[in-house]
Amino acid sequence: MSRERPGFGEPRYHHELIDSTNERARELVEEGAASGTVVTAAEQSAGRGRHGRHWTAPAGKALLFSAILRPLSIRHRLLPLAVPLAVAEAAEAVGAGECGVKWPNDVWIGERKLAGVLIEARPPEWAVIGVGLNVAIGPDEFPQELRDTATSIGGGADVEAAFAALCEALDRWVGAEDDTVLAEFRRRDALAGREIGWTGAGEGSGLVEGVDADGNLVVRLADGDRTALGSGEVHLKLD
Ligand code: BTN
To answer: What average pLDDT does the segment 129-144 reach?
Structure first.
């Protein structure tokens, strides 16, 4: 069967040190780089996280990965849910314990964050899928403020093996059928059944019921009403 396009990671541009792999991938988009192109780095000086946060990792111990996807179509409607599923599978394939997903797109082991995803997009033209996956970071190598909340695959896991596993998993999950993505996200959902609060686009609190068909987070409020949160500007707080 002929393939629609080369898989993720073809070509790959690796840097020992770069400001941000997402930033470099965006430049490559402007230069006309093909879908599937990936930028990786051993270290970033200005790694970007969600909500304008900074993303840091000790050199050579995390997978710092940005992939170009273009063009975007209706098949990519649930991309923000599909990507953490790929990351979770890749992490497990190289030795992580069972991974959960925390809406919209963090990957957790237990109560700790293993990986974050930052998707920057100009629909319908392109998306840059940024992934920061902690692979071999020792507990005392995280900055003090993350020591209670972050984790790493550990156990001698290898960044290159994680790279290969992530490319393979993205090939399967990006563009997967909506029903397949939703079923797997619900199976791994780390927030379902938990009390949360949120700020940003309005604020409130309630009990998480799960994700709806559009990938929004459905929360039951104290008065019994339901609300659906979009990922855009919502900041979650966990009880
Ligand atoms: C989050 O805040 O959880 C998302 C973090 C995403 C970090 C990754 S590291 C590789 C890529 N390049 C960046 O500048 N950010 C993403």
So the answer is: 96
Same domain membership, residue 168 and residue 204? no
Could you tell me if 84 and 200 lie in one domain? Answer: no
Domain boundary among 188, 213, 228: 188
Position 1 scores a pLDDT of: 39
Q: Is 23 helix (H, G, I), strand (E, B) or coil?
A: helix
**Do 183 and 127 reside in the same domain of the chain?**
yes
Q: How many domains does the chain have?
A: 2
Distance CA 4, CA 16 (A): 31
CA of 221 to the centre of ligand 1 (A): 32
Look at residues 28, 6, 232 and name the one whose alpha carbon lies nearest to residue 128.
28
Kindly report, residue by residue over 113-126, the tens digit of the pLDDT.
999 999 999 999 99
Average pLDDT, the chain: 95
Q: Which atom of ligand 1 is nearest to the CA of 65?
A: 10
